[in-house]
Structure formats: structure tokens, C-alpha cells
Amino acid sequence: MPSDLALFMRQLLRNPKTISAMAPSSRGLAQAMTADIGPQTGAVAEFGPGTGVFTRALLDRGVRPSDLTLFELNPEFAANLRQNFPGVRVVTGGAQTIAAHCADVGAIVSGLPLLSFPPDLCRAIFTASLRVLRPGGAIHQFTYGPKAPLPDDIRQEMGLIATPGPRIWLNLPPARVYTYRRSA
After folding, report:
1. Is residue 15 within a helix (H) or strand (E), and if so which, with residue range?
2. Tens digits of per-residue pLDDT, 80-121?
3. Quick one: residue 182, left, alpha or beta (phi over 0 = left, psi -120 to 50 = alpha)?
4. Region for 136 from its dihedrals, namely left if φ exceeds 0, alpha if ψ lies in -120 to 50, beta otherwise
5. CATH number for the 2-182 domain, one of 1.10.357.10, 3.40.50.150, 3.40.50.720, 3.40.640.10?
6. DSSP per residue over 24-50, as a string?
7. pTM, to two decimals
8. How many CB atoms lie within 10 A of CB 45?
9. Where are the domains of the chain?
């Protein structure tokens, strides 16, 4: 999608501190992030959808537009998402506000750069997410870094298990997917 790449590059040049990637996520990363999600998942939330690469993968996997809520802080990305994904709810707000917009969520897909966030913001996002995540639900998060994206102390405090997934080498830069679930 050339227009999506142009939008991404414009936003990167205008707001480099708020765009924490060198390029939009690859289709391979989108496939890995959404592999366990489908129409049976029910409500799905996406944090930091940007140009909608993961959004498209979720819809292609059979998630109904009415079951998908996107949280995007960047107003230009949000407007683009509304235009390109009719029927999908787009919230121009932070992930930590999920409880005000969603309930009984089966999965959360997050493109947020957690490693660059202050610990209190990570804690707020995961606390709010766990309020609406139904039993058995999962939070899918990727990172470019060599370690899990959620700090271990916060993960343990919240009773979460982090399962590393595949490293996606054909992403710029390469990324690894982690799935977070409540411990039994």
C-alpha cells in the first residue's frame, strides 16, 4: 500500500519521537501476531495500529469489523484507519483507556513500543487490559529488543506468563512476538 507507506513516512518525519519504528510492520509480523486469533475470539482490541497492517491481518483471519476496536493516539493515523476499515471502531486515545471502551475482550494485539515506555505507563496499560480481558484471553505484543517487552517485575506482579514466539527476520528491524496470559 504505497499511500500507507507515504503516510507512515510523513508521520515519522513530523513526529520521530512518537513513531518508534523505521518502517511499517511486515506482513510476516502481522501473520505471527494474529496467528491464534479468528472469528471465535470475539472482541479484539489493537493498540497502536498505525497504518493498519495488523488490522488487515485480523480482518483477513475472520475477525468481524464490529468486534474490533483500535486505539491510536496519532490523529492522522486514526483518520486513515477510519477511512480504510469501515465498521471498525477507532478510539483516538491511549491503550490505558481500554476499560472505558471495551469489555469481554478475547485478545489484544499491541504494536506499542513498551521498552521505551516508563514502567508506570506499562503497568497502567496492562492493568486496564487485564480488567477487560476474559479468562483464557491473551495479549500479543512484539518487540525489536533482545528481551521480553514487559519488564519481568511488572509481569510477575500481574501474575502473567510470557511465551516467546517466533523471531520475524523479514521485518525491519527483525522482531519477536510474545504472548502474555494469566497464570493458572
Report:
1. none
2. 999 999 999 999 999 999 999 999 999 999 999 898 899 999
3. beta
4. left
5. 3.40.50.150
6. PPPHHHHHHHHTT-SGGG-EEEEE--T
7. 0.88
8. 25
9. 2-182
